[in-house]
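S.,

As promised, the 6-diazenyl-5-OXO-L-norleucine run. Input:
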Amino acid sequence: MIKSVLRTIGALIVVLFSVSANADRQPLLDSKTRFHPVISQTGMVVSQEMIASQVGADILAKGGNAIDAAVATGFALAVTLPRAGNIGGGGFMMIYLAEENKTIAIDYREMAPSEAFKDMFLNPEGDVDNRKAQFSIQSSGVPGTVAGLVHAQENYGKLSLKQVLKPAINLARNGITVTITLAESLAARSERLQSDAGTKKYFFKKDGAEYQPGDVIRQRDLAATLARIAANGAAGFYQGKTAAMIVDQMERTGGLITSADLESYVALERTPVCGDYRGSKVCAMPPPSSGGIHLVQMLNILEGWDLKALGHNSADYIHRLVESMRRAYADRSLYLGDSDFFPVPLAQLTDKKYASTLRQQIDLDHASRSEDVRPGLVDRAESTETTHFSAWDQWGNVVSNTYTLNFSYGSGISVDGAGFLLNNEMDDFSAKPGSPNGYGLVGGIANSIQPGKRPLSSMTPTIVFDPAGAPILATGSPGGSTIITVVMQMVLNVLEFDMGIAEATAASRIHHQWLPDNVYYESGVSADTLRLLREMGHIVNDQPRRLGASESIEANGDGVLFGAEDPRRHGSGAVAQPQK
Ligand code: DON
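Predicted complex:
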């Protein structure tokens, strides 16, 4: 009797529980909020430096759109994150314009000066002189950042250029408080950076001492340069006083950039490379970035397997990623370069049939050796420090931008008087066929040095759309050669494994780039998994390493934005548009 009463009460509780569970709508945010993303119903900016994200979010609150916010953040990063934020470098910006339902790809990559030539970094023995390619005044390409940001703002922004530049000018003029991260980053490169008089003046104390956390760095020359851009647009950089200072420095120190190079530099709008992954459209940069092509190529190969069933970061999953990466990076070495100079076989590389040929070559139980994998198109004769930010506005416009000086602090050389660091992007060319660059990447004729050509990049700012065509993800990353594989794992984490953006960002990553034949992995990939990969024949790196730093925004289609800065880089920040 007691038993049956208890049973009845138990059954009642179950019924009540399930009724109340059914009565409640499944909380909208639950599945997306693991790992604590920032949430907004208006707009958001995510970048590698919190103050710069705040600058962008404030521009949104002033009525600016995602493009205004992104440009404001881009110029602010040139002040607050000098190791990668820049006006002396270059990059790529993807824009989605909601009203026109149009995706735009802006190429503001650096350009080889007109006096550059194929063998300019070879020593008398015919070997690559890495110091010259990476740290000399000749390692700088013609900077593209100002042309790119101004082009985006003037064509697609709502506010004035003056308005979006004002916060950066104020930060440079009034000073930024040195964080632990900035102090450490400058101190770690003190010797290299102090060897240039301008850089020493701008980033070290008068007596050469290093800045400490809590000190203030004022960048008055940079403020003046930014003010000239605010007053005159791109001409404030490529002509007049700033240009004269760049050319003067080149002439004094053996650099190649001339006033004609500066005047002729333009940002270019290119057709985005878009692929289809199980009905979702994935759009990224075309050449001179290799990012879009290889992102789509790898996704095409991977689409043929049920990855979700294999399980995230299982050995079988990682094996398939690695084998796809190996083949894409082999192709990169031969077929990729600036498409204005070399006929890049874009359509073939992103063709689903080609991907299926590559997929069939993959042994599902055993690793291939990179020495046995050659660039795969049969009918052709024959190639630390970047930063990404994303912005999204209340109207649904989206910006995904990656730009860089190449290495941390670029060449380490500043334009004296103008207050900014120069890139060392000429090292992204293939200085000699088969000779690895600063990221171990090899290339050939497709990416050889030629005047006016833009060096091949891996930067992969990306926008993903749901099957109905609405944007759902803006992402991208620094990390040199690892950028494309990091972005691909972000896309898969969201599309395939349904992770919220913060979880997708935090999840451990892996990387392979054909040569060297090595699987790189982050801590968090289990020892069991690594053992299984080794048993399949993979050469697995002996140490974990950190891969990339994505700064992403995801939309859930219900008007909620989820932003996640990458915890791998301290100081980064997702900032929601402040409420009125
Ligand atoms: O354009 C490229 O592919 C390289 N210059 C990117 C350099 C980079 O990501 C450094 N960051 N960690």
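Confidence is low (pLDDT under 50) at residues 10-21, 378-383. The first strand starts at residue 38 and ends at 40.

- D.
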